Amino acid sequence: MASLVFLAGRTLGRSRARTALVLLGLAVTGALLLDMTMLAHGLETSLGAVLGRIGFAIRVLPKGSLPFAGDEEIPGADELAAAIARQPGVTAAVPVAATNVYVAHGGARFPSFVLAVPGGGTGAYALLEGKDLPADPAADGAGMPAVVINPLMARQNGVRVGDTVVLSAVPSRGLAPLAAPRAFRVAGIADFYVDLAAQRSLSIATADLRALQGRETGAASMILVRLSDPARAGTLTRWIAAHDPRVDALSSADFLARLATRLTYFNQFSLILGSLSVAVSFLLITAIVTLSVAERLGEIAMLRAVGFTRARIAALVVLEGAVLGMASVPGTFVLGLVIARYLDAILRQAPGLPLDLHFFVLTPAAAARTVALLTATGAVAGVYPAAVASRTAVAATLHAEVLS
Amino acid sequence: MNRDAPVVAAAAVAKEYRTAGDTVHALRGVSLTVEAGRMVSVVGPSGCGKSTLLHLLGGVDLPTAGTVTLLGRPTHALRDAELARMRLAHVGFIFQRFFLLPMLTAEENVMLPMLEAGVPAAARRARAAALLERMGLAGRAGHRPGQLSGGEMQRVAIARSLANRPALLLADEPTGELDDATGREIVRLLRDATQDGCAVVVVTHNAELAALADLRLRMRNGVVV
């Protein structure tokens, strides 16, 4: 094998300009392959990372829905959350409600996403500055209720910790009566994990949201469940499903799988374009290696005369293809990552996308798959020229070379 | 090595090539025995079958009729891979066109058969250095073929052919592309090879080279005359 690797490597360096051009071409097709490999599971991977950062192992949702995808709610969510909290290994079961409100501050009025939680310390967001909501808002005697805002609202609207903002509900449920606007004290600034681009977000106590909306408490958009041992997620999701058929209990893996079913077009898109790039790489390598073999028939006949077997000659040529594929990897990654960054920036301009989500994500698996595909494509592309080379008639070729 | 033991023997060897609607009789019943340490020259006009005979003796081609026995084994009875391994271990080829690999240095070209034979790296380098020294090319080991003269390239090719200490050395017009002085140097090197017990068969138009052989064969129209 050492002699074949040695010869294959040296053969590549023989016509440097030609090899460089081929590697450039392979880098272009390889970059497309890498980007499609990154795109195929990019959103799932990106969302998986966000879910991991938030830290809740299970999400309980109205049956058939995705988080905050509509107005569906779980009636009696407080009771369900309490029942879940009593299960072994559950360290928190947090019913959260999500909707939109208007915020008035400094003479301006603007809309904001609101995430309502039972109280502070739930971990539904990460506090960056100031204080969290009171752990038990009903027992808080400070008078004015508290609100935690996201950095965008602080930056764009000049809202600071200690300021007062006035919230009013958005009529979203037909003729539901609305309560009067209420003043809130800004207690802190927090990262809400899944903020959309240009989205203002805030968090208040669920009781305060219901008061704004003029509605009874008890319903929630989702229940977030934290476990001491995430490996118990399967057991608990089965218990929840059996306990309340109105809901879906999704572990992070289930949640990503459900998302994946709604993103099949990304997979199809990347499969088609990825296959095309593999096909072009295959044809490029086959063409160049076949040409190279045709130019070297005399040398190949010499190698056979010296004692290389047909199989060794075939292996040498297949290896040349594989080495070409492997040699294109650095260019593939440089070009692929630059293009992916550019395309990701374009796609992330689409409305309704959380800031931390990316379409193109380079994972070790995506990188390994791309390297393996390029190498395998090179090797398979070497099969036809390998057959040509190994069938070289030694005596006739040597004779013809002398005559030429 | 027993100097009287036949290294290669051809018995009533014939070779035919079929072309479109025609059959070319390249060899017609040639017999030949070459013992260790002997040098045989084959002369004759172009197209008389000299190179074909050389290819059959070296096992890169098989006879249409008759038998070639290489180191006691009939070549037609060996599988292609066995023949290749036999060539690697026991046969050295020298070509008119040298056929050095242009992307390798002189030393690497010499080491190539040893690399394929699995000779350890240190032994490869030592053997290549010794052969290049013997060929008067010690200072050219790191040069590529494009940086060498025709005579130097042929000497590298001879060193390569001797790398695995072959029992049989086959040279096809080794001086064909060289000037007279360089040709004489090549002739001397081939003659030297027989001192090591190597059987040498040389196809040549070079009368001086042919005259140095222990046995001189003249061929015409596929037969020895």
Short summary:
The complex is a heterodimer of chains A (about 400) and B (about 220). With about 400 residues, chain A is of the alpha+beta class.
List the SSEs and their pairings.
The complex is a heterodimer of chains A (404) and B (225).
Chain A: H1 2-12, H2 16-40, H3 42-54, E1 58-62, H4 77-85, E2 90-105, E3 108-117, E4 126-130, E5 146-149, H5 151-157, E6 164-169, E7 182-191, E8 201-205, H6 206-213, E9 222-227, H7 233-243, E10 247-251, H8 252-261, H9 264-295, H10 297-306, H11 310-327, H12 329-347, H13 364-381, H14 383-390, H15 394-403
Helix pairs in contact in A: 1-11, 2-9, 2-12, 2-13, 3-8, 9-11, 9-13, 9-14, 10-15, 11-13, 11-14
Chain B: E1 6-19, E2 22-35, E3 39-43, H1 50-58, E4 65-70, E5 73-74, H2 80-90, E6 91-94, H3 106-117, H4 121-134, H5 150-161, E7 168-172, H6 180-195, E8 199-203, H7 207-211, E9 215-220, E10 223-224
Helix pairs in contact in B: 3-4, 3-5, 4-5, 5-6
Please describe what this structure looks like.
- The complex is a heterodimer of chains A (404) and B (225).
- Chain A is 52% helix and 18% strand.
- With 404 residues, chain A is α+β, with helices and mostly antiparallel strands.
- The longest helix of chain A has 32 residues, at 264-295.
- Chain A is elongated.
- The mean pLDDT of chain A is 88.
- Chain B is globular and about 50 Å long.
- Chain B has a six-stranded mixed beta sheet with strand order 6-7-8-3-9-10, sandwiched between helices.
- Chain B is an alpha/beta fold and 225 residues long.
- In chain B, helix 6 links the parallel strand 7 (168-172) and strand 8 (199-203).
- Chain A binds chain B through residues 2-3, 6-7, 10-11, 13-14, 298-299, 301-302, 304-312, 394-395, 398-399, 401-402, and chain B through 51-52, 55, 58, 60-61, 80-81, 84-89, 91, 93, 95-97, 99, 101-104, 108, 112-113, 115-117, 160, 164, 172-173.
